[in-house]
């Protein structure tokens, strides 16, 4: 059974004879068809474009809000940048414009003598140009007791010029420690004709070894590190003895010897044993023996404070019962 074929020409010819409700329904159907065709052909793309424009508007509104906030804080940011530029210029102005290697070496020697450190060698390396300054590295080798070396390194931060310390290594060298480090001083590349500003080092770091222990010695052999007290300058006209050319840490007490009412201390350095009495000198810091006991030798050392005065500190050599 086949369905009858729809004849649109007959439908249009007979539409005039339709009743009013039929004509209304036909008009509504035709209007719906037209709207559907328009929606498919134009409405969908336009709606997608509208959504895209709305999303872009929201993004632009967010950017506008951010730009408005930045514009409002532009003056404050400008002041901050100028302040940072002034700080950088001030720091660069504190750097010397000419090499000061001799002055740095003099300061290093002064600090080493003030803290009982023996500087074995200083190698001045090639300068390293940077964008705003020039580095002057120096390789330093020194020896001494742990607390003396630590105090020496800490005192470098109190110098009137910028000195930094890098690549620090410690190793045993007999009874002493050997310190190798890379120290750097700096000078400016451009001074613009201005006078060098005075460096304000700020609160100095002070190494206080009195409450600390030497990590390279067992607890039983820890010695109290007493800070210096004001004292008179040593007698530089006095001839220096053989034992004053050796570090105090190279000696160990191995016993005592009595001759009548006089007592002597027996100190060993390497393979040799030396005999000392009260009043004898020992070590490079003008150390003078003040008392000899059965288990210890007491002496007083003199050393410069780095400011033109002299200080004294007591030192004790304890009997080595295993010798």
Automatic annotation (TrEMBL):
Pfam families: PilO, PilP. InterPro entries: PilO, PilP, Transl_elong_EF1B/ribsomal_bS6. Signal peptide: none annotated. PANTHER family: FIMBRIAL ASSEMBLY PROTEIN PILO-LIKE PROTEIN-RELATED, TYPE IV PILUS INNER MEMBRANE COMPONENT PILO. This is Type 4a pilus biogenesis protein PilO. It comes from Pseudomonas lactis.
